[in-house]
């Protein structure tokens, strides 16, 4: 298990935790689009954060669930994982 979340992993998590299917390549191309563009609301994002906390056994930054875009989310989460590694 790496200590970085990739766009592919985020795509998987969106499907698993929020029930929203977005192909990784679409997510990659639209990293600066709002999560709402993909149909992810704050509860969906909370689910994704919860999944990550379970997977890595470490709390995610409180701002993660308030991220507006996939890029912002990945930067926050990955810097927290790197700091905790």
Describe the structure.
With 85 residues, this protein is mainly α. It has one domain (7-84): Non-ribosomal Peptide Synthetase Peptidyl Carrier Protein, Chain A (Orthogonal Bundle). It contains 4 helices and no strands. α1 crosses α3. The protein is globular and about 30 Å long. InterPro entries: ACP-like_sf, PP-bd_ACP, Ppantetheine_attach_site.
Q: What overall geometry do the principal axes of the alpha carbons give?
A: globular
Q: Could you give a short account of the major beta sheet?
A: none
* SS class: mainly alpha
The CATH topology label is: Non-ribosomal Peptide Synthetase Peptidyl Carrier Protein, Chain A
Please give the count of helices: 4
What's the CATH superfamily, by name? ACP-like
* Cα separation of the termini: 12 Å
User: Could you say what the CATH architecture is?
Assistant: Orthogonal Bundle
Element string (H = helix, E = strand)? HHHH
